[in-house]
Design goal:
With 530 residues, the protein is of the alpha+beta class. 31% of the residues lie in helices and 25% in strands.
Length: 530
């Protein structure tokens, strides 16, 4: 066997083994199962896991952008007309949210933590100075007191109204952005505080929220089931709330939005418990996106999250009292806001019933600026980019005994909205890309084997064809040499008589006729006589 033949046979054997082994591994998904199993064990809330430190102290910077609706025509609204607002902002704050008091429970299967948040103003990302910019907006303490007195007698409401008027308290107020956010001493609340000390005399949308947490959480670590990674077990000791009118609405589902289980697919719904919204919401897959070179799935709240119970019966439990429901796109949260007529929605009433948008001039909802979404890396479940957007509104309506409200039309009035954003930092993004590259290479190793087998198969075909061509050339050379030898012999061959008779004269008498003859080996032979 020649060296060329040995090479062909060796290539064929290696090629066959690679293809068989590679295809078998692809079909059995051995490496993919192995890497998935590894991810499920590594991505847990344990001290030895690589994700634990980033869960304790999230590296991506979180920014809170506050936008306010400045009322430009309060007199027109009080006279029964349509209010007009202009958007002012953003006023941006850097949010720091480390987890503290971390304690492992039940043999490491659960973990206790609180998540205090602190805010630092970022002037370079803001539209102005919150201490200098003055906003005309609804006087929320005034409305809260009116709403609380609505069930009392007309006489008492009239007395309170006269007292408020003597203090100069009106339905609309002019305050700085800083006061509206971080608090001011309200004259009405001060009077109530003197009678009921448990009522705070200060009011602010973020009053006492700088440096405080939203409650005590117990999370699943994911040790028992990777699908439970980061899910909330209890919040303030509760496994379900008691504010709403159905068990389903009171459920505390999902995570706090900071982490999600690995190996996410496009068909599943992701649940988040939002303490500031007093409920859990679900997110559905929207599209594939790319953030800093990392492929991610975008999830966002579908239309049915804040849909009217008429269109989505699952939302009937959020009507309190039962049957007292608002339209699509808004949620009344008075039950967890000490009875104040507070309503939450998406900014500019995005995805809400047009009647709420048209009730106030100056609103322009659009998906790009007002949609809440979450971009998740599906293999690890790590949030790559997040935008949480929510709007605070208040219900304004006529209340007898308060003359200032006698002409107004019932309106869900926008106060402000917040845009909470976070994007993975460059260092974490580089680490994520490296990790995903390793995961991809290991998961696709069987395909690499199959690819090598195909390459060797092509090499085998080339070697085989060249070997056949070489043999044909050898045969052609042998035939040429034989033909050349044959023609050479022809040129050197003389006509030789095969007859045993002596040579006759070369000349034949003219009278003697020519005799027939035979040729053997191209030599003329005289015909034998009969």
């Amino acid at each position: 066997m020649t060296r060329r033949s040995c090479a062909i046979y060796a290539t064929g054997i290696v090629c066959a083994h690679l293809l068989i082994v590679g295809i078998a591994l692809v079909v059995a998904q051995v490496f993919q199962t192995m890497i998935h199993s590894r991810l499920k064990k590594e991505i847990t809330l344990t001290e030895k896991s690589q994700v634990f430190e980033s869960w304790k102290n999230p590296p991506p910077p979180v920014y809170m952008e506050y936008y306010f609706f400045n009322v430009t025509n309060p007199e027109v609204f009080l006279a029964g007309g349509k209010a007009a607002v202009t958007q002012v902002g953003p006023y941006t704050y850097r949010e720091y949210r480390p987890r503290e008091n971390i304690t492992f429970l039940e043999n490491g299967t659960k973990i206790f933590a609180v998540n205090p948040k602190s805010f630092v103003f970022v002037p370079e990302k803001s539209a102005g100075d919150p201490k200098d910019d003055i906003i005309c907006t609804v006087n929320i303490p005034f409305v809260a007191v009116m709403s609380e007195l609505n069930s009392y007698s007309f006489f008492l409401r009239t007395i309170v109204s006269m007292y408020m008027n003597s203090l100069g308290v009106k339905l609309f107020m002019n305050r700085s952005v800083h006061e509206i956010l971080w608090g001011f001493k309200d004259p009405v609340l001060s009077k109530i505080h003197s009678m009921k000390p448990e009522v705070d005399e200060y009011f602010g949308l973020m009053w006492k929220k700088n440096g405080t947490h939203e409650g005590e959480f117990v999370f699943h670590t994911g040790e028992e089931n990777y699908l439970d990674y980061g899910k909330i077990d209890t919040w303030n000791g509760l496994r379900q709330m008691s504010w709403w009118s159905s068990n389903q609405s009171n459920m505390i589902n999902g995570t706090d939005g900071a982490v999600f289980h690995p190996l996410i697919n496009r068909n599943e719904l992701l649940y988040i418990f939002a303490a500031d919204l007093c409920r859990s919401i679900h997110l559905a897959y929207v599209e594939d996106v790319e953030v800093k070179g990392i492929q991610a799935y975008r999830f966002a709240p579908p239309d049915d999250v804040l849909m009217s119970p008429k269109d989505n019966p699952n939302n009937e439990g959020f009507c309190v009292p039962a049957g007292d429901c608002l339209g699509t796109g808004v949620l009344k949260v008075s039950v967890c806001r000490e009875g104040a007529p507070i309503v939450v929605s998406f900014p500019h009433f995005y995805q809400a019933d047009p009647m709420y948008i048209n009730a106030v001039d100056g609103l322009n909802p659009n998906k790009e600026e007002h949609e809440t979404y979450l971009d998740l890396q599906p293999t690890t479940g790590v949030p790559i980019r997040a935008c949480k957007r929510a709007q605070l509104n208040i219900i304004l309506k006529r209340i007898q005994g308060f003359p200032e409200t006698k002409h107004i039309k019932e309106t869900i009035f926008p106060i402000m909205f917040v845009n909470e954003t976070a994007t993975i930092d460059d260092n974490s993004a580089a680490q994520m890309r490296t990790l995903l590259l390793i995961v991809t290479l290991v998961s696709n190793f069987p395909l690499i084997i199959v690819g090598l087998g195909i390459i060797l198969l092509l090499v085998l075909v080339v070697l085989f064809c060249r070997n056949r061509q070489k043999k044909n050339e050898v045969k052609r050379i042998d035939f040429t040499e034989a033909f050349h030898s044959f023609t050479t012999a022809k040129d050197e061959t003389a006509y030789t008589q095969v007859s045993d008779k002596p040579d006759e004269s070369a000349e034949t008498p003219a009278s003697q006729p020519m005799r027939n003859g035979s040729y053997i080996a191209m030599s003329p032979v005289e015909a034998q006589k009969c």
